[in-house]
# Entry
Amino acid sequence: MKVSVDEAKCCGAGQCVLLAPEVFDQRDEDGIVVLLTPEPSPDQHSDVREAAAVCPASAITLHDGS
Amino acid sequence: MSPNEPAMRLPLPTDGPLEAPAEWQELRRKCPVATVELPSGDKAAYLTRYDDIKALLSDPRFARPTDRDEGAARIAPEGAGGPVANGDSSIAIATQGEEHLRWRRHVGKYLTAKRVTALRPGMVAIVESLVDDLVEQGQPGDLKATVGFPLPVYVICDLLGAPAEDRDRFSYWSDAFLNVSRYSTEEAQASYGEFARYMSELIAAKRAEPGDDLISNLIKDGTEGGEGLSDELLLSTGMGLLVAGHETTANMIGKMVSMLLADRTRWERLLDDPSLVRTAVDEVLRFDANFGFGVRRYLGEDVEVGGELLPGGTTVVCALSAANRDEQVFADAAEMDLTRAPNPHMTFGAGPHACLGQSLARTELQVVLEVLLRRLPTLRLAVPVEELQRVEGLLVGGLRTVPVRW
# Structure
């Protein structure tokens, strides 16, 4: 699984950080998403999928290779 | 939608205090772009499908109506509703474009998931002491007045850096801004004046002696070379946090507990497995059918919604709670499933205007639920569900009281 984020769309809701803190963070200066782990390990996939599904700005895209 | 068809009037009637209007399902299926009449008498287009609403809210061209939008539908009749009901020029926060984005990011950095998580222990302490008050006052108690109403305003006061002894004044102001049925326009305006004076003094005090609070930090951002917020914008920010974060969360606490106790097997499930609190909170947010009648958007230009062309100048009401029960998106949408995940409900909106305080609100709800399950496992409603009464405020839906025993 590969993850990409769209900073321009991000609305800073922080749902992704609450769900998958090892994969996503928010910038200190404006709360916009930071992608920590573009290729999360399989045990993180379910949290990442949930984060992408609930992102209110649809700013997380998953490219499923595995 | 045709100009001649008789318009439904909002709010739509329901069979019970926690029930969804029967019309929603019908509208989603047959009339996803309906015409409705608001309490003001103005007409608006009414959306009920998840995909239509998500697309419109995600469209950066559109925002809520302001008083610059000539002909935009008003919620409340002229003269009712106080300074926030109809989009008021006294609120200096830009609703669109670069300026809106800049404000959002300025404030958003103090409401990130990590910052909110850091506030959690303080919230737990507040809820513990509010539950002490509830127990001390004896049975039956009103969970809404004793726990739901104070918590969010205390949290906002802490966030803004307002001293604890001023919390009750904030509660009163916030109620006067939003509770159109309890306060007159004059009272709402007088409250706004008092609040503005208070905030000006608070801002001056923080300039003189900064703390580690939102106002001090926003001032500091401005003095450290960055683009700061004017005093006017700081005032509007305080007002915005109070208006957006108090009554909504306060009511949601009351409704959450009511929904979970209305069928007590839900409460028992959470007692058995408190790790479900996170998904349970999002499920009650999704399931709440009494959130106020929706989010408005003013169309500055023509746009196609659900295959229908809506002309520029239209005011749209997005029925978020109807979207949250859309069977196309949620399996068994009419059932409450405390384990539902993912749960992409739109109670906090979507797109560039999605609720900035949603991590804060979720955390408050989670903390209330955790503390109640631990402290008052025998909690139950003190009246039959049908006897719970909805508040008649126009902007934020809720229950008047939530009588409980334990």
